[in-house]
Write a structure and sequence with these properties.
This protein has about 200 residues and is mostly beta strands. Helices cover about 10% and strands about 35% of the residues. It has a 7-stranded antiparallel beta sheet. The chain has a 5-stranded antiparallel beta sheet with strand order 1-3-4-10-9.
Length: about 200
């Protein structure tokens, strides 16, 4: 899987954003989507300023993860306006939503034990953090159906990261197309998981 270098939203805390590099990638298999995220800081001081939630023995499904450091993936339907939004926190907490249209008709993607999103690996060094997540295809199909799309109708992804530090919060994406940070805009879903 190749990782795309994400861009910070322009002009928003630009000097602060220059202290970091953020990467994300995705790969689709017959059973799941694998997501891979990497945050690199230019110094230990910058890395130590990142707000990471406390690690948990048992990760939870939780709302509002995007209000702090969070890995996100938007997986849209190719033939309709429906899309899924996955949020994963560095401590393993997660949530998964289905939308019928741009920020409309939000519902939780139904999941059953054993078929929930899962953080399968994390690695933390002095200036770098990596996380890998698995999204089971059973949940992807259920989410697309609940959003009114076909169960296998995946298009290009939006891969994004919210990076919160003691100084500021920055918003990273493969592409930014809005006048303010908005990860839900379908025109910004440009990562092709079938070619990367």
């Amino acid at each position: 899987m190749s990782l795309a270098r994400l861009k910070p939203f322009p002009f928003l805390h630009a000097s602060h954003a220059n202290a970091f590099q953020v990467f994300a990638g995705a790969e689709v298999s017959t059973s799941h989507i694998e997501l891979h995220y990497r945050i690199k800081a230019n110094s230990k001081e910058s890395f130590d300023s990142i707000i990471f939630p406390d690690l948990l023995s048992k990760p939870l499904r939780q709302d509002d993860l995007w209000k702090s450091t969070c890995f996100e993936a938007f997986t849209p339907a190719r033939e309709s306006s429906a899309y899924l939004e996955f949020n994963g926190a560095p401590n393993g907490n997660w949530n998964w939503y289905a939308f019928r249209d741009y920020r409309q008709g939000m519902t939780l993607v139904p999941v059953v034990p054993g078929l929930m999103p899962k953080q399968v690996s994390i690695s933390r060094g002095e200036t770098e953090f990596e996380a890998k997540w698995i999204l089971p295809f059973a949940g992807v199909r259920q989410g697309l159906l609940s959003g009114g799309a076909g169960p296998n109708d995946l298009g290009r992804f939006g891969l994004t990261v919210v990076l919160s530090t003691q100084e500021a919060t920055t918003y990273w994406a493969v592409e930014h197309v809005g006048v303010k940070p908005d990860f839900h805009l379908k025109a910004s879903f440009t990562y092709d998981p079938f070619r990367n």
